Structure formats: C-alpha cells, structure tokens
Here is the input.
Amino acid sequence: MDLPPLPHTLRFEATEDVETVTALLTSSGVGDGLPVVPPTPVRVESMLGAWDPDEPLGTLAPLRRAVTVADVAVCAVLAGCRPSALPVLVAAVRAVQAERFNLLGLTTTTGSAAIGVVLHPGAASLSGAHAGANYLGPGAGSNGPIGRALAMVVRVVGAAVPGAIDVAIAGQPAKYGLCFASMAGSPGWPDLGTERGGDLTVLGVSGTVEVVDAVSQSPEDLLDTLAAALLLPVAAGPDGRTLGSGEPVVVLPPEWVERLRSAGWDKAAARARLWERARVPVARLAPGIAGRAVVDELPAALSPADIVLLVAGGPGTKATLLPTWSSSRTVTVPLG
Here is the structure.
C-alpha cells in the first residue's frame, strides 16, 4: 500500500478547485467522500495565525507517522474549520496519543469504533461549538468541521486508510467526525472539564443509543431506566470484570438534570445509583461471553467515578448513551 502524502507536503495553488483537491484525497484512499475546502496558502496561513507550522505534535497510530501543527492546519482547512478551531484540534491530536486511549486499536479494529471529542465550556466558547438542540447533528456551530478535521488528521497522517488498515466491518457515521460541546455545570453538577481539570475530552465511541423515559415520575425510576441502558454492551470487557469498556458515557438532557437537581440528587448521587443498578449476572449471558468473565456479576463500571455524565441537548426527555469501545478509555486535556 502506498502511504498517503502528509498534509503539510501538499501544495495547492490559489486557483485549485474543490473537485481537484477532493479527487486527490480520494485517489490516495483517505478522502471521506465529501467535498473539501482547497487548502490554499492564504487559507492555511490564516488558519495557522501565530502558530509555528513546524512544531512537532508527536506521532499518530496506526503507522506512527510524525504530525506537525502544519498538518493539523491543512486538515482543518480541508474540513471547513475556522481558525478558532486550531487550538482545540492541536490539543485533541495530543490527547489521542495517550496510551489509555489506544489509538492503534481504535484505528485498526474490525469494530465500528470512531474518535469523538467533547469540548468543555471554555474550549466550546473559543471554537464556536454548541451543546444545544441537535448537538450530534447538523447545525450552524463548528461541531461538524472540528470532528471531521480530527478524523481527517488521524486518517491522513496516521494512514488509517479505510479498507486497508482501518478494517471496520460496518463503520458508523461518527467515523466522518464526531464533536460536540457540553454545557456548563450547575450546583451539584460540575461539568467534566471542571471535574478533571481539562478543556476537552476524547473518547472512542462505538455508537449512539437514544434512551427515552417520558413517564417516570421519581428520580429513582428515571435513573433506573438509564441504568438498564448501560447494560447494552452485553460482552465482558478485556479485564473480565466489567461490561464493555467499563467507562460508559452518557449525555443527559438539561430537563433530566433539572428534575434530578430539584429532587436533591447531585451528580455523585446519580452516579452511585447508576453504578449500583447497572450490573448483570454472568449467568444471564451467552456461555461464550460468560466465559470471559472473572466475576459472578458484571457492572457497567468498576466504580461510580468511571461513569461519565455530560449535559447537552435541547428541550425533551431523551438521554443519549455513547457506548465506548471496549479497549479504549477517555482522556481529558487542557488546551495549553
């Protein structure tokens, strides 16, 4: 397999059209099938601003190729980002290299794992990302371009060429890019960035699941509905002690959080309830899956703290479960 060219080595004239640049990426095996913005010198320089284009940012799996700020800037232009997205993307590129994130596994698995990034309030404000209605869908904010740019950096620089090195059986829409903002915290419900001391979190996402409960009246019943959804990864994790990754990510709508807060439930209490209720006896699993377990009962997480709770969305009572890939853990980093 011929390696795709590193983004910073690509040279485009000011007159280059969308079709030509898109066709080049497609022929290299790293296009995503969507039109791109030609990264002309003016556009790339505008994206870079005062950044040193040659600043090294480490190496990206699966092929451990070196990545620079210039590579990120070119991919940001290609994906349609504004210059305010570059600090976020640079931090995200550093974050995905953490050992616990397991970028090599994420980019080479036959599963449907995709890379997602959650921007906490400060980073969201800087980059223009939104946490309101349709936060995982189309909108006027920068969610889509930032998610696409990060996916493009990993695919192009890391050479995670679909069908060659990225051998996902089915894939999922999030492989085009996944980015959203989380809402600011409220009394008793600090946002994840505040809890961990960072500005953004990267996660390996296996998919999305809508969790609906429009009828429960008590906080306990509402949380028990969510706990039942956390059992969805019906396979023992790599350590045989939890379901799936052992670190489920849940995005609660503001209405749910307000109902819980009004009834006296803070974030720690909600996590504790979920941890207590989200577990399944190994005897209920298929024999082959049960054979991987080293305990008699598999919880969704080893501790309440391992259940990641975020807040985002518009009006309504639907939460979103983001099952995380079994061999990846979330990583939270600052922008600086």
